[in-house]
Amino acid sequence: MAQSREVPGRLAEREGVVLAQALCRAADILDVSDAALARIIGVSPPSLSRLRKGAFKLTRKDKAFELALLFIRMFRGLDAITGGDDASSRSWMRAENLALRGRPIDLAQTIVGLASLVSYVDARRARV
């Protein structure tokens, strides 16, 4: 098994870059505005703009890193449920959800709401 020859600092930086790319791609697919995405991961809109340009880095020690991981987990679960139908995923994000008691796009903008979305999507995926 080949081991990475990258030093831990470079590996952590690469991890942050990959996470930022995945976060932005998921937000773009779900048509989440930059203002909403900034609230979801708990950063300012200018910081999110810098994140998109690669000038702001997410690191494991930041709460934004953890929230970005949760958002991506929610996106991946939703993508699996909809069979990769991006239009259905976008529609789900904006539709009133009686089980969740709100619109997912609004709920995602709080930590408790985002955690609820992840739990909901995980439970829906696990149905047999």
What does this structure look like?
This protein has 128 residues and is mainly alpha-helical. The protein is built from seven helices and no strands. It has helices at residues 8-29, 34-41, 45-53, 63-81, 86-94, 104-107, 111-125. 27% of the residues are buried.
DSSP summary: helix tally: 7
Mean pLDDT score: 91
**In what range is the share of β-strand residues?**
under 5%
* Structural class category: mainly alpha
Tell me the distance between the termini. Answer: 36 Å
Give the helix level as a range of percent.
Answer: 55-70%
Based on DSSP secondary structure assignment, what is the total number of beta strands? 0
Overall geometry: globular
Radius of gyration: 15 Å
Topology:
Blueprint: H1 8-29, H2 34-41, H3 45-53, H4 63-81, H5 86-94, H6 104-107, H7 111-125
Helix pairs in contact: 1-4, 2-3, 4-7
